[in-house]
Amino acid sequence: MANFPKGFFWGGAIAANQAEGGFDEGHKGLVISDFTTAGTYSVPRMDTFKTKDGEIVYLGGLNPVIPEGAEPVTVEGEYYPNRIAIDFYHHYKEDIALLAEMGFNMFRMSISWARIYPNIIDDEPNQEGLDYYRDVFKTCKEYGVEPLVTMSHFDDPICLDTKLGTWENRRMADYFEKYARTIVREYKGLVKYWLTFNEINSQMPMVPPSTPASKVEGGICLNRLHTKFLASAKAVLAAHQEDPNCLVGCMIAGGPGTYPETCAPADMLAQIFKQQENYYCSDVQVRGYYGDYAKRIWKQYGATFEVTPEEERLLLAGHVDFYTFSYYMTQITSAEPAKAGPSGFPIFKKNPHLKYSEWGWAIDPDGLRYTLNLLNSRYQVPIMVVENGLGAVDVKEEDGSVHDPYRIEYHKAHFKAMSQAIMEDGVNCIGYTMWGPMDIISASTGQMSKRYGFVYVDRDDEGNGTLARSKKDSFYYIQKVYKSNGEDLD
Ligand code: BGP
After folding, report:
1. Number of domains observed in the structure of the chain
2. Ligand 1 contact via 253 beta carbon (within 6 Å)
3. Considering only CA atoms, which residue is closest to atom 10 of ligand 1?
4. Residue 39 near ligand 1, beta carbon < 6 Å
5. Domain limits for position 286
């Protein structure tokens, strides 16, 4: 029996703000990550702003609240790694050629909204931005690589937060629809697969509902998410109108892969609640309506927004065509709530059955099989794993080689688990795009040294290096796997 079905998509994924650079080129508008400092595993990244009184403030966390009237500011002495990133903006031809050489038949990337509508409310799109992505997609086509394009990957134009009232403003859904319509129309025939918002559930309230801050922050997050659901539904409808052949998916962080800490009933209930939080976004986006448990979550976080009958109809009509998710790790849940770490991410208890990466992420290939099974039985739509990989420190040898057996082992184990889920368990998983096929800037820490790539990029955590690309050992392993449609995994 084959390991993977014929026509399976094999690829890798990047995001504009973590790879492109060219932050002030091509008439692009500014985005929040242009003002996000570098961090480490223990030092959180910060966004730098100047208040209307001239005070410099550092804002952290996943959902920072920008003081009224504050504007982003470049602080001398700070390093902003996303501004140049790995300069995919100028290296895309070389990079896509390397991906094709590895046998990629799919490449997930994102369009930066600010390259298309620098101020969101502009009447006309920015032609330079349109031309840039057109050439990227044409290059993919020349190599037989199918693009999978995320419309929004942690990359909101900054004016959204400073001038347009954040995602709490329901009009954002209309602006997003306009943007989606423009890009789908523009790239019809070049791009068939789209995703609306990357890891939309990363905007879920992070603080445990029992803490006082959660009542304000949590309510705001859920209200903002509601606008994003409306925006996603509008984008799906617009995309289908513009290009009836295109398919639009959602993108969820992590999937519902969690384990109860013990078999105590209270831990099991905590596990179910945690999974419901993970289903919160995908239920709306895939099924077209909020799950019954949403009422409990709204109450816990003090969310007070109304869902109008018109919005209900929109969400139902604008459900997505397929489900995608990022899979890095599983988590432990227990009745005792997780504490928030320095960068706002909760710190979960360690699973004694698993090994952990240098950045503390659980390595759990079987969890991928378990997650795929859960998702398949819940949604019954095609699934793609659109992020997965090992962030690790690589050593470049004198002769330029990089020996990364740990990365090969990681992917091998995940390929095997994915194969079992598909071929033995019957999961309808149609593709896999690992994270960061060439090294890029880490989203959580801003580091280059957290490398996922099969292609090494010469750049360090302070912005030094030639940006030259070279092949790691894993490059040849992946080439063997992808070119054999997963037949040769060893
Ligand atoms: C996901 C994001 C990506 C990516 C990845 C790895 O959450 O969608 O943007 O960066 O995680 O995380 P990191 O870069 O922090 O290692």
Report:
1. 1
2. yes
3. 443
4. no
5. 9-38+84-483
